[in-house]
Write a structure and sequence with these properties.
heterodimer; A: 255 residues; mainly beta; Methylamine Dehydrogenase, Chain H; 4-stranded antiparallel β-sheet; 2 helices; 21 strands; 47% strand; globular; B: 165 residues; 1 helix; 45% strand; disordered N terminus
Chain lengths: 255, 165
Amino acid sequence: MKKLAPVFFICLALAGVVILLFGCDMKSSDSAISPQSGQGGSMARFAITGNTLYIVSKKSLEVYNISDGASPVKTESKNMEIGIETIFPYQNHLFIGANDGMYIYNNSKPENPVLLTKYSHVQSCDPVVVQGNYAYVTLRASSLCRPGATPSSLDVIDISKPSEPVLVNSQVMDSPYGLGVSNNMLFVCEGEKGFRIMDITNPKLPFGKQYFKDLPSYDVIVRNNQLIITGAKGLFQYQFDDQNNMELLSKIPVL
Amino acid sequence: MSSCVLSDSEPFNGNDFDGTAYRPIYATADELTKVSVTAPVSLTDPGKIYVSDNYLFINDRGRGVHIIDNKDPKKPVNLSFISILSNYDIAAKGNWLYADNATDLLVFDISDPRVPKLIKRITNAIPVSYFPPYQNIFFECADEKKGVVIKWEKVTLDKQPNCFR
């Protein structure tokens, strides 16, 4: 556990920042979470922060300076172990999801990210989002992703005591893909099974508020109280509020 | 790390061959690098999404990028489609859209999003590994001489293939 300590100190520090941001202005919290000018979903392999484009291949982190947007210049290429899947910039850090864990890079110097640690978890196929003192991890149990007969799950890990990460909650999911988090709401794309909205007013105990079983979902972007969701039926946009009211704004169907 | 390994006996690595495996689908370099811009088309297999300014970019898995004017989320307007084989990822900033095309990184000028223009191709920007994006499966070993692997199809085989990861 000793070697994990730095991760949790960082998470704790980030958590503090997030709480401060949330405390100031709920409306602006979505944009404050991510330093990206644009915004991708949690499944992304591409991410832009400032003048830097990050790309994770299956086995490396590629860094490009895009000060001249028309002509990206490679500044760094970091070899990683095979199995890299997603990248999620968060303040001065990059959270890189792999199928056996999560890498955390410090990107205070955006063009030369420094690996801080790798937090290993069981083999699975999905991303992680962090808010406050808790990390939300979905583990998809497709036979192609996770050996054995363990079910898919949403795990909540308390990272408030950096040296002692504690799994505080684990509940069965159907087939989770992308994740999104915003204040007291957690959104889980459940693939062909639908789209799940969970309440995290008590952050260590997400509970299901709504499960749209007729809305297959793969990736989600949460932005300014709006959801942009893609899935087998197309692209759906919703407006939501703190009372979990959902209003369908529009859809672009798959034809 | 896992890689292409020869296995001459069953069970291998604790996994029995159950008759299913993955087979690489190849494209020639010419097929792969052909990029074209068309009028808006319907979504067929939407994947990842990216928002930048008032625009929404929707990846159609393995096929390309839909560009949507999303200024009014109640009335998104489909503006154009960029056909790019083996495209799964996108990001955009200002007038520039970045997209993968197998191992290449493409840059588009989207100052007129109805007519995006390919202005740069950076070859071999994204290292690939020649095996399927899955674990604990058997697959036919990829042969670089046959072209670039653009995807993997699940097939039924009588004989256990030589690669496993």
